[in-house]
Specification:
Oligomer: heterotrimer
Strand order of the largest sheet of chain C: 4-5-10-6-7
CATH architecture of the largest domain in chain B: Roll
CATH topology of the largest domain in chain C: Uridine Diphospho-n-acetylenolpyruvylglucosamine Reductase, domain 3
Helix content of chain C: 25-40%
Chains: A alpha+beta (about 750), B alpha+beta (about 160), C alpha+beta (about 290)
Strand content of chain C: 15-25%
Number of helices of chain C: 11
Number of domains of chain B: 2
Radius of gyration of chain C: 19 Å
Distance between the termini of chain C: 60 Å
Largest sheet of chain C: 5 strands, antiparallel
Distance between the termini of chain B: 55 Å
Order of helices and strands of chain B: EEHEEEHHHH
Shape of chain C: globular
Largest interface: A-B, 58 and 58 residues
Radius of gyration of chain B: 16 Å
């Protein structure tokens, strides 16, 4: 039975503290093994041939010279992968199409972006594999390309798929285009809404594609046996999802593929999909030897999914008193070479923090010659928020209202409507706004060329499938296992929740991540779902264990189970009348397990619902150099409703990390293409993520409005924090130098041009 | 291409290896010597994940040739702890949650140790500028900077 | 397979002879922070790589005739740590302190930075402004060349095959002298300069500028020495009018391109802004020195 948070004592013993994480020592000593750190005897190295063209028909591929090179053991092409029917499967917001996915892994008819994989070679050394790649001869018919979303939508744009007819339009168009889908969420009467407004602002915005920027390139090691059994070591955000995608893409039964969770060096959504795993598995099958693939940094930028670039128009109407009466958004998102941008998320999240009776939110998913987009931390929401939160700021100025107070006036709470149907079921947003209004620095005066900006953001957060097991060792210590990859300290959070539930010290709980053969299904570590859903599974498993511990104690005391309570880590008589029994520890009960029923352990699975969304409200102070357009972050305060912080420091760490990614997105990060559609900045030198000297200490405020659906009140924390920063910074720049930036990134040349334009 | 025979000292221990002249020290450490604590994030000196010290000098091992190790002393993350005893920086990183995914952590620890060997009382700004060559995408740097300052405080006995 | 030889000559003459004896491409491996990147990407496939870091005369930092002789293989960190040199040439130090990261500075050298000939190289403008002279060893013996004559275009130098720079001479400093290097980058560290300005000036006892050299980086196909910019300062007290003239001359001399690091218009404007700021910094240092 899950315990409602209302019934839990407010004073936690371990939940809410910040102990050292179980994987900490291996990570600070260099012993932890990430995706590229595994080797096996006889291992081959694989290198990948990638298209130098943004768009080209592949006329022929001749691998004969490469195969003849001594040391080369096998080569695969797209045709080595099984074909899949063209079909969108799964819920609309996260639908997959394996016909597309297999082609994203390796090209078939066409190269659809610079960096598209054409062939992969496995050889005895990396140098030989690289030389073999250079010996593969490919005949291309280079085609015109398009990258920018507006360019891709033009009627005469070069088509990536000659038969793509836009879905979601009635009647369906007769001509093909690059527009994969149109979607719309509407409520109320938008025309009447705007007619009733006192002030209306409509603005257009553009954002460039940005990459998740994880420091660890994609890597894996595959060993395919002659018996059809394959083991895979892979750094991912979800080894069960890796197993499912890889098995399907290479044509294996899921049960024949065992995926070991390597430690992961950052993902942020970009490692919830596969790139190298299917290639490594196929090469290992072909060669009969283990195969290791490690992407280089340039390949990561050129061939893995960044998030979408976009073109947006947002129109909002308010009354003089700040009430929002109407909101309209048009969101055009670049999906990359295959459909599946996060535009649906963006259209839904854009106005989600606000009670607005009349909404029309339209999205377009558009393909273009660039890698297929992959999830990036609250995918889609940061992009539409840039537009919406900027327009709200302009409106607040027009009516002379503090921008935080205007947000507070319209803030959703439990019971408020959404534009896509269901009502909000949780409070928390207003509390994040109030946390900033109450902040001592919020009204601190600023100097010349300095400005303060605010913005808010929303993210759905996820629930879904998780499984956890809890076992009591012979000496009373505890082992817990889940299938949730640990990206940021979740082993510690699971141990804290288990320790709190069982009433034992944190140090007595070993917290592990098990492979796909050793634990039940777990969905990805993403969507801000792990502390929530996997935590639920952990607590449920612990509660099953507690029931069994009570039973064992009752047998040891020869009394009825209803006379035994579990309290503070001990089985105790419910009252003295039961008998003069000393409390029994886990150790004592485990010692007698042989005569009370054997090993003590349980697994619990959940398909968790009831998750609460993430809300974050932030303010930032900037200083703009009016002669160079350089923007310096002076102070950044981010409040987020986390429900209840299980591990306080790791919780705060998520907020700071997401904010800093948002700062990079706001100021410097972008994909820069040349006239041939090739990426000019495929490295960390010119793809500029923030460095330590760019930043002050970021302040994270943990607002706690518990979610009653989780035993400890948890709300997912990972993502909502990246939604507001870009608009907050744009709003701050406006206050600093009186210029409204509508294009991301707000790099120095753009800011200076805006200042000089007057 | 024939391999060179290199004799060097790594973390105080004598080490010999063979490598081709165009192999980086990073690749030698990871692939010849199985010392995978030093990480490749970019291979071009832009991220600092491969940081080691070479004759006491903080460098990116992806920008050093393996053959250059001849006759020199190299320190990697594997040599930072003293048996069971963690270096104070390693302890502070753990205590202050200065890692999330941990892939940048070995590079930061080597770089931070190099700073504190030269300046045992750095300001926050000095720490940030010294560590600007180490990219972190997860933490936003807050806790890393705090951990380094706290380690410096403990090392000073303050 | 790329065949590559790696040699560690002990003298500059030996290095020069090795290059002469090699038919294919030879590359000097100084700090390696640029060469390693070129080799990894396949842009450069040398037949011979020469590690010159064991050559004694390339590793000196020594007072010479009141000025300084600095070996071409001295790395940036060594230079920064030499407090006496840093006191005489803080502008050169400004540049050396901005190359890459601490890790890169632990390897990158003045010789390598100059001969890699990236127009945005951070140590070059201040060296040009300092009036540094490069000492070169080659098949025809030794020669001296002002450093501004070394870069000949992106990735190209004026050195003949078999020539290598062994050291730099920076002249004695007159009293009331100061130098500075400023650059514009989007981030505070780690970026290649979008614009760089190196500036050195000398004042007389009345605070009038008697000598100046101004060099711009990243705004042309090579670092520029801009006499017109210097002329805007000479004979003035480096007041607001002179600074405005300096800025205008710097912007006028800039002939940049649009690229992934900056637009033409931006670079032209910021060249003027940074020239003025560099002059203010050099002036403050000149007034602090007696």
């Amino acid at each position: 039975m899950l315990t409602n948070t209302k019934d839990i004592q407010q004073v936690m013993k371990v939940v809410g503290t910040s102990p050292v994480r179980p994987d900490g020592v291996p990570k600070v000593t260099g012993q932890a093994q990430y995706g590229a750190d595994y080797s096996l005897p006889g291992m081959l190295w694989a290198k990948i041939l990638r298209s130098p063209h943004a768009h080209a028909r592949i006329l022929s591929v001749d691998t004969s010279k490469a195969l003849a090179l001594p040391g080369v053991k096998g080569i695969i092409l797209g045709s080595d992968f099984p074909e899949h029917p063209f079909d969108y499967v799964g819920p609309e917001r996260v639908a997959q199409n394996y016909w597309h996915m297999t082609r994203n892994i390796m090209a078939r008819e066409k190269a659809l972006f610079e960096g598209h994989a054409i062939a992969a070679v496995a050889a005895t050394t990396a140098a030989i594999a690289a030389e073999a790649v250079s010996l593969i001869e490919v005949q291309y018919e280079v085609l015109p390309h398009c990258i920018d979303v507006e360019d891709a939508m033009k009627p005469d744009a070069p088509l990536l798929f000659e038969d793509m007819i836009t879905r979601g339009v009635e009647p369906a168009p007769t001509k093909p285009s690059n527009i994969s889908k149109r979607l719309e969420f509407s409520t109320g009467d938008i025309a009447a809404g705007f007619a009733s407004a006192d002030e209306v602002v409509e603005m257009s915005f553009k954002t460039a594609a940005v990459h998740q920027g994880y420091i660890e390139p994609h890597s894996c090691l595959a060993r395919y046996g002659a018996d059809g059994q394959c083991e895979l070591w892979s750094a991912s955000q979800g080894h069960f999802v890796v197993r499912a995608y890889t098995a399907k893409l290479v044509g294996m039964e899921i049960g024949n593929l065992l995926v070991h969770p390597a430690e992961i060096g950052g993902g942020f959504g970009g490692k919830t999909v596969v790139y190298v795993e299917p290639m490594a598995v196929l090469l290992s099958r072909k060669t009969g030897l283990p195969v290791k693939i490690m992407m280089g940094r340039e390949d990561v930028f050129k061939s893995t999914g960044p998030t979408s670039g976009s073109s947006m128009t947002v129109k909002i109407g308010v009354k003089k008193d700040g009430t929002i009466v109407a909101a309209e958004g048009l969101f055009k998102f670049q999906a990359g070479a295959f459909p599946g941008s996060p535009v649906m998320n963006a259209t839904m999240c854009a106005f989600a923090p606000y009670i607005i009776p009349n909404v029309k939110s339209v999205g377009f998913d558009v393909v273009s010659n660039r890698p297929k987009s992959a999830a990036y931390r609250a995918p889609g929401s940061p992009i539409s928020a840039f537009a919406v939160e900027s327009v709200l700021d302009v409106l607040a100025k027009k009516i002379g209202m503090d921008p935080l107070k205007m947000r507070l006036k319209n803030a959703v709470k439990a019971g408020s409507p959404t534009a896509w149907g269901p009502k909000h079921s949780h409070d928390g947003y207003a509390e994040t706004i109030q946390a900033l209004l109450d902040h001592p620095q919020y009204n601190k005066p600023l100097g010349k060329n300095q400005g303060r900006g605010v913005a808010s953001g929303f993210w759905f957060n996820g629930g879904g499938e998780s499984t956890a097991s809890v076992h009591i060792n012979e000496d009373g210590t505890v082992v817990i296992a889940t299938g949730s990859m640990d990206v940021g300290g979740s082993r510690a959070s699971m141990a804290l929740m288990a320790a709190e539930t069982l009433g034992v010290p944190y140090e007595s709980v070993r917290s592990t991540v098990a492979d796909t053969a050793s634990i039940g299904y777990n969905h990805v570590t993403g969507g801000s779902r792990v502390t929530y859903a996997t935590g639920i599974a952990v607590v449920e498993a612990c509660n099953k264990v507690i029931e069994d511990l009570r039973l064992r104690a009752s047998l040891m005391w020869d009394t009825d189970i209803k006379n035994v309570v579990w309290s503070d880590g001990y089985a105790k008589p419910v009252d003295p009348s039961v008998g003069n029994f000393e409390p029994l520890s886990l150790k004592a009960i485990a010692a007698k397990r042989g005569v009370t029923g054997g090993p003590i352990g349980y697994e619990a699975s959940t398909n968790a619902g009831g998750q609460a969304p993430g809300f974050s409200t932030q303010f930032v102070d900037v200083e703009v150099d009016p002669e160079t357009g350089h923007v310096k972050i002076l102070q950044f305060v981010a409040a987020q409703d986390v429900g209840r912080a299980i591990h306080r420091d790791y919780c705060a760490g998520q907020i700071v990390g997401g904010v800093v990614q948002g700062i990079g997105w706001a100021l410097n990060e972008e994909y820069i293409y040349d006239s041939k559609g090739r990426l000019s900045n495929a490295g960390f030198l010119d793809y500029r993520i923030p460095v330590a000297s760019d930043l002050p200490m970021i302040e994270a405020i943990l607002v706690e409005v518990p979610n009653p659906s989780h035993p400890f009140g948890v709300k997912g924390v990972g993502e909502a924090n990246i939604v507001p920063p870009m608009a907050a910074i744009a709003n701050a720049i406006e206050n600093a130098v009186g210029r409204r930036m509508t294009e991301l990134p707000m790099s120095p040349p753009r800011v200076l041009a805006a200042i000089d334009a007057g | 291409m024939s391999k060179h025979h290199v004799t060097t000292v790594i973390n105080g221990d004598p080490v010999e290896f063979l490598c081709q002249p165009n192999t980086s020290l990073l690749d030698v450490l990871r692939n010849e010597l199985n010392m995978t604590g030093t990480k490749e994030g970019c291979g071009t000196g832009d991220c600092g994940s491969c940081s080691v010290t070479l004759d006491g000098r903080l460098v990116c091992s992806c920008l050093v040739l393996g053959v250059e190790a001849q006759g020199k002393e190299i320190q990697t993350i594997e040599g930072m702890a003293n048996g069971e005893t963690l270096h104070v920086l390693q302890r502070k990183f753990l205590e202050h949650a200065a890692l999330q995914c941990g892939i940048c952590t070995p590079g930061f620890l080597i770089a931070a140790r190099s700073l504190l060997e030269r300046n045992n009382n750095p300001t926050e700004e000095e720490v940030r500028f010294w560590l600007a060559g180490n990219l972190c995408r997860c933490t936003g740097y807050n806790n890393i900077i705090t951990a380094v300052l706290e380690a410096a405080r403990e090392m000073r006995g303050a | 397979m790329m065949e590559m030889r790696f040699e560690t000559p002990k003298t500059a003459e030996a290095a020069s002879a090795l290059i002469a004896a090699t038919a294919g491409l030879s590359k000097i491996f100084s700090g390696g922070t640029d060469l390693m990147v070129h080799m990894r990407s396949g842009n450069i496939k040398p037949e011979l790589v020469l590690d010159i870091k064991s050559i004694a005369e390339m590793n000196v930092i020594a007072v010479e005739n009141g000025g300084y002789r600095v070996g071409a293989a001295v790395n940036c960190m060594q230079l920064l740590e030499n407090t006496a040199f840093a006191a005489m040439w803080p502008g050169v130090i400004d540049g050396a302190n901005l190359v890459g990261s601490i890790q890169v500075r632990g390897r990158a050298t003045l010789g390598g930075n100059l001969c890699n000939a990236s127009p945005g190289a951070d140590t070059v403008p201040a060296m040009i402004a300092a009036g540094a002279i490069a000492s070169i060893v080659g098949p025809n013996g030794r020669r001296e060349v002002p450093v501004e004559q070394i870069p000949a275009g992106p990735g190209k130098t004026s050195l003949a095959k078999g020539e290598l720079i062994v050291s730099f001479f920076l002249p004695e400093r007159a009293p009331h002298s100061g130098d500075a290097y400023l650059r514009f980058t989007p981030r505070t560290e780690m970026d290649i300069a979008v614009v760089g300005v190196g500036l050195s000036l000398t004042l007389d006892d009345n605070g009038v500028c008697t000598h100046a050299r101004v060099s711009l980086g990243a705004v042309a196909d090579r670092a520029l020495l801009v006499p017109e910019a210097a002329a805007a300062l000479i004979g003035t007290t480096v007041d607001a009018v002179a600074l405005a003239n300096l800025a205008a001359a710097a912007s006028a001399a800039a002939r940049p391109i649009d690229d992934k690091r900056g637009t033409k218009a931006f670079r032209i404007k910021v060249a003027g802004v940074l020239a003025r700021r560099a002059a203010e910094k050099a002036l403050a240092r000149a007034k602090g020195n007696n």
